[in-house]
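Now for a concrete sample entry.
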Amino acid sequence: MRFLPTAEQRAFAASLDAMLSAAEVPSAVRAWGAGEHAAGRALWSRIAGAGVFALAVREEHGGVGPLPVELAVAFVELGRHAVPGPLVETVLAAALLSGDTAKEYGPRLAEGETMATVGAPFALDGDAADVVLALREGQLWRTHGCEPRVRPSLDPARGLAVPLPGGELLSAQVPSSALDLARLVTAAQCLGVGLALLDRTVAYVGQRVQFGVPVGSFQAVKHQLADVKVALEFARPMVFGAAVTLDPADVAAAKVLAGEAAYRAARTALQLHGAIGYTAEYDLSLWFTKAVALRTAWGSPARCRAAVLGVSGDRRS
C-alpha cells in the first residue's frame, strides 16, 4: 500500500506552517518556561482556531473527529515549530472523556477555551491547564488541580507537576485506544522536531566556514546529516501508517522510530553546531531539549519495543 497525504491534508499542513512561521513561537516558548503563559495562550487560541483540537473531539461533542491522520499531520507541524503547552494531553483528554463530561468539555476543548492535562503520574503544565485529569490504577479521575511543587524537566517548557489526590471518578476503565492516540501524536510531534533540527543544522553548516570552505562540504558532516535524513524518512511513513491503522503495535513502532530519529537529529545538531549549540540563548535548544523529553513521553523506547513484540507494557512510560 502506498500512502500519500491528500491535497487537503497537505494544504492543512501548509496553512499551519505559515501561521506558526509568522508567530513569535520561540519567545512564547521561553515565556512559557518562565511561567508566563499569555503568549502561549494566544498561540493556543490560534491553533484551536485552525481546527487542530477539534480533530480529536467527536462530532457529537462539538468537534469533527476523531481524525487521527489529520491529527498526525497537525502534530508534525506543531513539533516542527516547538509549540509549547499540553498539546498531546489535551488530545488525550478529548479521547478519554465520555458522557456528560465530554458534552461539557468537548466544545471548549475544540475551540481552545479549555486547556487540559493528564497526570500519569506527572501532569504536563499542570499550572497552566484548566482541567487536570489523572490516570490511577486504570481509572480516570478529574482532580482539583496540581500540587505547587514542579518536577524538574530537561525541557524548560515542559513543567511537570503532581495532580492533587482525590477528586471525581470519571471512568472505572481507561480505554487503551485513547492512550494509543496520545502515543501516535507524540510520535508525530517527534517527527516534526527532528525535521526542524535537521533543517536548522543543514542551514548552519552551509554558513559556517572552516579552512575557507563551508563545514557542510566536509564528507563526514554530509554522512552524519544523511544518516539523520534517512532515519526521519523511515519514521515518516510509519507515523502516518500507524495513523491509518491505529494498531497498537504499529503505533508503538512509529513512536520508537520517530523518537529515536528525533533524538539522533538532536545529537547530530548539537555536535555540528559546536559550543553555541549548548547555550540556552540559542534557539536550537528549544528543539534539542524537546527531542530528548519527547523520546520517553507516552512510551519510552523500551516500552514501545515491548509493545511491538507483543509484551504487555504501560503506554504512559
